[in-house]
Design brief:
By secondary structure, this protein is mainly alpha-helical. The chain contains 6 helices and no strands.
């Protein structure tokens, strides 16, 4: 098995570990859960880098990498929404998860048309992902009642804004195909 694919599989294996550690009733659990999430976030970047650098790109990796990313983010956001129990966190979480569903469906549909390249990952998408990972990490490690939680919440709103912006870019790129039979 190729190293990038092993890193992607590691990210998937870390999901239940993240959940289990996050809910441990121990004082160090938030830091440990944050460390697990940080490892997953770094492997997200690292597996793509290695796949390109070592020329180990594969159909399996191309399929599984975005699945692993979306699962990790969605699971972390669901945990945080439950922990924070506030519309303040629920709104950006819904925007982020909703966008991932829309864009995944759009990419699949565009691929069926042979137009996958027109909805390829953009710079804004990469920036959005980075900000999202930083925000989620911050929200995992801080106490929801602390003043530091605002840093993560603000970063999550910025990520949600970039999420909407990148979704609009993807939809505009696909619009000629979407509007053919209106």
């Amino acid at each position: 098995m190729k190293v990038p694919n092993m890193l992607t599989l590691l990210r998937i294996v870390l999901i239940p570990v993240l959940v289990a550690v996050y809910y441990l009733p121990l004082s160090w659990a938030p830091l440990a859960a944050g460390a697990i999430f940080a490892v997953a976030a770094v492997t997200d970047w690292f597996d793509g880098y290695l796949a390109r650098k070592m020329n180990q790109m594969s159909p399996f990796g191309a399929f599984l990498d975005p699945v692993a990313d979306k699962l990790m983010v969605a699971v972390a956001l669901v945990m945080l929404v439950e922990t924070y129990a506030s519309p303040l966190l629920t709104v950006p979480a819904v925007i982020i998860v909703g966008r991932e569903i829309v864009i995944s469906a759009l990419r699949e549909w565009m691929a069926e048309l042979g137009e996958r390249a027109s909805v390829a990952v953009s710079y804004i998408g990469k920036l959005k992902t980075t900000l999202q990972m930083v925000a989620i990490f911050a929200l995992i490690i801080v106490d929801p009642g602390s003043n530091y939680a605002w840093t993560g919440i603000v970063a999550l709103y910025l990520a949600a804004g970039l999420t909407l912006w990148s979704m609009m870019q993807y939809l505009m790129a696909a619009w000629p195909h979407l509007s053919d039979d209106l």
